[in-house]
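Request:
You are asked to prepare a plain-text protein record giving the amino acid sequence and the backbone structure tokens, at your earliest convenience.
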Amino acid sequence: MRPFLPGLALSLLLTLALGQPLQFQERVFLQFLGLRKVPSPQKLQPVPFILRKIFQDQEATAAAGVSQDLCYVKELGVRGNVLRLLPDQGFFLCSKKRSQTSSCLQKLLSFNLSAIKEKDQLTMAQLGLDLGPSTYYDLGPDLELALSLVQKPSVRGKSIPKPGKLFALQSVPQPRGALHFNVLEVARDWYINPQKNLGLFLEILVKGDRDIEVNFQLEDTCARLRRSLHASLLVVTLNPEQCHPSSRKRRAAVPAPEASCGNFCHRHQLFINFRDLGWHKWIIAPKGFMANYCHGECPFSLTTSLNSSNYAFMQALMNAVDPEIPQAVCIPTKLSPISMLYQDNDDNVILRHYEDMVVDECGCG
């Protein structure tokens, strides 16, 4: 039987936190996160403002005990439970001398979509082009940004990718800050047919006529653009198997167990510190979370008052008749999710929601 992964995830975290590291279980947990192995990034990638804001909003909402749909990203207006920021893996192309052409720069944009699982549904793909700070001030001609599909494969230093179908053309009067483009249909085509993922052809052109002074300014502008240009692809996916309408509510605040519980079944506090597990190098946020655990006795005389199921009551009753039947045990009866920001094996920044990671209530079962 296939293991119940969310429960396994919590079980693994508890096992590791209690000083009983199991490499096999850790490997299974990493697979649950969609990772091949423990990531070891050279440095943490910068987290874009939108991902950090979504994470902080969700944490604030959960702390306030307000219900929310974890498979709907309200900040983006799309369905989804996994957000990935894919870095550009492309390269700049050498164009002709700029005094003889209207091209300021050309770049192949390349994004690896292989981290997206087969069952995931693409609901958003947004190309972000950060042109950096203002790169020119009194330059006469405006710049124009053109995005095209790549017509044929390219190999660095061996062939030059040719632009194919143009799907975005935008005037850039002052290149400052980020520009965003909806490339959902393109990304879906790449996802369904990976062999078509040849990348995007980006070209920044100069509009209008130019004189010698403008040419001099333009060379400086283009050089600055090449240094400051940063491209990324924000992808949102939805896994239908992880998004059932009945299980999308965040937890309300749960009061701490009373001291009078004694040895009876109740919730105990347990904080999982990712630094203690050595995972702080790739988990960006949170630094840890209050996972909690269930422990205590389930005596027959108190089964009905310990948040137990009807089945637990009958099991306790049968145990009183036949001691070979095991007693009811203390188990989680209410679990809630957490959100995690982390870096995967390909240096993608991921924002993902994981169900059944926090024990809110315990009972006998």
The two ends are 21 Å apart (CA to CA). Residues 192 and 278 are 37 Å apart (CA to CA). The helical segments are 5-17, 23-32, 49-63, 184-192, 212-228, 310-321. The chain is about 20% helix and 30% strand.
